[in-house]
């Protein structure tokens, strides 16, 4: 609660400076609207913003589930088979190195303007941090635990199920936190390229009409949705992986 209060205080201070600077400088609203004007746009268009936020949130959640599931499956396959690991490493690098902006138009052509292209784009962004973090955790299992499992006659599958996967769950949790933080990117980029609804579509629509206050209002809603989703996922992961507590300095 103390951290939340400090964050709210800093945000209020920055918004106050923004408001005063815009008013004193006489900046036109179509270039940089004041926070009060953005707040008014939020209130007057709350119905439209809420409807589009639901669509974007659905795309984020589906992309998170699909991308995380694909990343987990890929990491497990790489951990169990050296041949798969050698084959998948270039794929992981390509998935990370290729900008989603570059392939977004192609994905829209292949999967259409509907939900599918947005889910694919979000999954591509989410896939790498989950697969990379989980595979790294699986590859760095404590050697003592591995030797103990071998001593008791555990096979490869039993070793993976009872030793390697539980040991790698904190790494997977870190990857999922990163994936949750970047989940909005894929959904919004897809809506920018081609969509008929969503916060990204609303930004493009408003920007083309010089309604900059609506662009900022959509950004504010997107930020709030992303922060709430991250907080929920972070809290769930903390409960699911209780044997990897944070230190006091890390929490601060």
Automatic annotation (TrEMBL):
CDD domains: TM_PBP2. Signal peptide: none annotated. It comes from the Bacteria. The chain crosses the membrane at residues 60-79, 91-113, 119-139, 181-202, 214-233. InterPro entries: MetI-like, MetI-like_sf. It is found in: Cell membrane. The keyword rRNA processing does not apply. PROSITE patterns: ABC_TM1. Residues 49-233 form the ABC transmembrane type-1 domain. It holds the Pfam family BPD_transp_1. SUPFAM superfamilies: MetI-like. It is a multi-pass membrane protein. Keywords: Cell membrane, Membrane, Transmembrane, Transmembrane helix, Transport. Belongs to the binding-protein-dependent transport system permease family. This is ABC transporter permease. It comes from Ancylobacter oerskovii.
């Amino acid at each position: 609660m103390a951290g939340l209060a400090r964050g709210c205080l800093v945000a209020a201070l920055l918004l106050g400076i923004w408001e005063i600077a815009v008013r004193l400088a006489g900046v036109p609203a179509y270039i940089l609207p004041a926070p009060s004007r953005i707040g008014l746009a939020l209130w007057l268009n709350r119905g439209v913003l809420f409807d589009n936020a639901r669509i974007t949130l659905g795309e984020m959640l589906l992309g998170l589930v699909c991308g995380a599931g694909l990343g987990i499956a890929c990491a497990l396959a790489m951990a169990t088979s050296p041949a798969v690991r050698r084959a998948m490493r270039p794929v992981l690098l390509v998935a990370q190195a290729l900008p989603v902006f570059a392939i977004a138009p192609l994905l829209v052509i292949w999967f259409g303007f509907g939900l599918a292209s947005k889910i694919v784009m979000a999954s591509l962004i989410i896939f790498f941090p989950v697969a990379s973090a989980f595979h790294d955790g699986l590859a760095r299992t404590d050697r003592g635990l591995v030797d103990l499992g071998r001593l008791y006659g555990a096979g490869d599958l039993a070793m993976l199920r009872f030793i390697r996967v539980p040991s790698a769950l904190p790494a997977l949790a870190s990857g999922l936190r990163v994936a949750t933080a970047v989940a909005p990117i894929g959904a919004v980029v897809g809506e920018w390229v081609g969509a008929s609804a969503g916060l990204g579509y609303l930004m493009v629509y408003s920007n083309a009409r010089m309604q900059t206050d609506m662009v900022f209002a959509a950004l504010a809603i997107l930020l709030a949705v992303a922060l709430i989703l991250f907080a929920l996922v972070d809290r769930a992961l903390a409960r699911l992986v209780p044997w990897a507590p944070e230190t006091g300095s890390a929490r601060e």
